[in-house]
Amino acid sequence: MHAVAIQRGEEAPALLEVPFPEPEAGQALVRTLRVGIDGTDHEVIAGGHGGFPEGEDHLVLGHEAVGVVEDPNGTRFEAGDVVVPTVRRPPNGDPNGYFERGVADMAPPDATLERGIDGAHGFMSEYFVSDAAYLVDIPRSLAPLGFLVEPISIAEKALEHAFASRSAFDWRPESAVVLGNGPLGLLALTLLDDMERTYCVGRRDRPDPTIDLIEELDATYIDSRETPIDRIDERHEPMDLVFEATGFARHPFEAVSTLAPAGVLALLGVPEPWAFEFDGGMLHKDIVMNNKAIVGSVNSGPHHFEAATETLSRYPEWFLDAFVSGIHPLSSFEDAFVDDETTIKRAVELSSI
Amino acid sequence: MHAVAIQRGEEAPALLEVPFPEPEAGQALVRTLRVGIDGTDHEVIAGGHGGFPEGEDHLVLGHEAVGVVEDPNGTRFEAGDVVVPTVRRPPNGDPNGYFERGVADMAPPDATLERGIDGAHGFMSEYFVSDAAYLVDIPRSLAPLGFLVEPISIAEKALEHAFASRSAFDWRPESAVVLGNGPLGLLALTLLDDMERTYCVGRRDRPDPTIDLIEELDATYIDSRETPIDRIDERHEPMDLVFEATGFARHPFEAVSTLAPAGVLALLGVPEPWAFEFDGGMLHKDIVMNNKAIVGSVNSGPHHFEAATETLSRYPEWFLDAFVSGIHPLSSFEDAFVDDETTIKRAVELSSI
Questions:
Q1: For B274, which of A279, A289, A301 is closest by C-beta distance?
Q2: What structural domains and CATH numbers belong to chain A?
Q3: Is the ipTM, as predicted for this complex, more than 0.95?
Q4: Element (DSSP H or E) covering residue A306
Q5: Cβ pairs bridging A and B (under 8 Å)
Q6: Distance from CA of B293 to the nearest CA of A (A)
Q7: What residues of chain A, 19 to 78, have a C-beta less than 8 Å from chain B?
Q8: pLDDT tens across A195-215, in order?
Q9: Which one of B251, B288, B294 has the shortest CB-CB distance to A297?
Q10: Is the pTM value of this prediction over 0.95?
């Protein structure tokens, strides 16, 4: 069967012929419908993140997938069920404590593989197998957009943790800013609709499809070339919640001062090492004297996938039309990996329901 | 009546004659029993923290108090009730949203006064008045040590927030390190007795009363002159919880790498501005990829005082004997302000029950 993979030493993904997967006990065989692409895929392709499966020279890409159960193979599924796979798998197939306790998303990098990212093949192949425990079923009506469940779930988890950090008191957030107008940032914005006022930071000129979307979501676009992160509180207002989805290493440190008292900063970006000077004394004092919190978040678990499915079911048509920039057949998969300013979210279609 | 106060331009507290306080409607008159002293008092005396009440040239010290209701003045108290006052009061007597919602401890510095610290007289006077809403009653048997309720409550709140930040998943912490062997650090250590393994960091040589106490609490003493904060994970183990009570501005940055995956760093210190270089990229990535959290915490609210009262009631005699270094009569109040290595916690006694 065909799969889209990055090969050792190559700079772009290629279409490979790979063996048809055989489900083992406890695994279902899934026919892949669509697989979305995000910044992590581009980092994996560039070699800045993740790695090949042990002993192999290629990595099948794709961690944002939706498929149809082809062979339940004795698992709880029925043929035809629409499923979305979670991303993390135990190294060597030997579940450690994180997997046993159902908190694989909280595992450190060395206690997990990530399909399509780090050490395990992804889902961008015509079929894939997965332990049934790592498949979340979604309504059949959501099948065409089920590849959005995984990226939404990333934002769901980060916000769950951010709100948990403020659960020891009567927190009444009104303002939130998302740093980054990539797909993750825009999805986060859709989850903040309980906030009175929302903002999203980018570095783009109008006309731009993400700026249009930000404004259609009733949020205010902030151009960080005009308003640095640590001035957002002055130019707009102190923010009860800051959601960082840029991966720019200075942003967390600059964002603390933009937080309102008792506010929380959720970090999701994954920068490279970068040493710089900063007033650590002021930062430390600000965090303490204003009861601020910072939570890092990566990956997501089954209940975040369930919340994301619920979220997906509520998205209006106009949002989905604007958010999904293109669905590309396997024969022209390269078009789905285009990363320009006309793209918000693209997916590869491997089969249809 | 007598009060111990710091006067503008002076470097040491003095015994002053101040007017006897008259309770207004809603306020009770309290006869002060004992008032404890901590690092914040020394910072206030040195001028590094807090400030004088508006238009005045002295600040009555003391925010760790216990007293007996002398005149309930129509409030819910009865004469003879033993009470501990909380520290924060609304500026201009006009409760803002933080006070109205019962979350004064989450207010920013400009939305609150702090008795004995910032803008409002403290409790180190023979009598004080307080709105009944800011008095927490404690059992009469705890009266002699009731001055410990406030400092314990500071640790209770920080730990409540730290645990809240990890409440979105099945967190099973086993290891904790307290940075700082001052009274706050030692009190925090007593609250961590559910942890399998605890550690406390100081910079002192043996013999030392705090090291003895750390070891009697079954914790391991770590000398930071031998083991830097960012090496604790290698020399001992990664820590599920780090409780910072040093106020040293580099500690938060060094402590993140010592955290175990999914761990939390509680910050309580209040450093001065200090710019230095650190690898912000590594720090950012570590927080994200390992789902780490940081929570700042200052002050405490009535329910933390209640938890602290419960904690105080459980302390064994040996701990209290070791922790309280001295109770000093008002006539020799200066002895209570001694800040040397024989001192853990000292208090001034203004009257007896």
A1: A279
A2: 2-137+316-349 (3.90.180.10), 154-296 (3.40.50.720)
A3: yes
A4: helix A302-314
A5: 199
A6: 4
A7: none
A8: 999 999 999 999 999 999 999
A9: B288
A10: yes
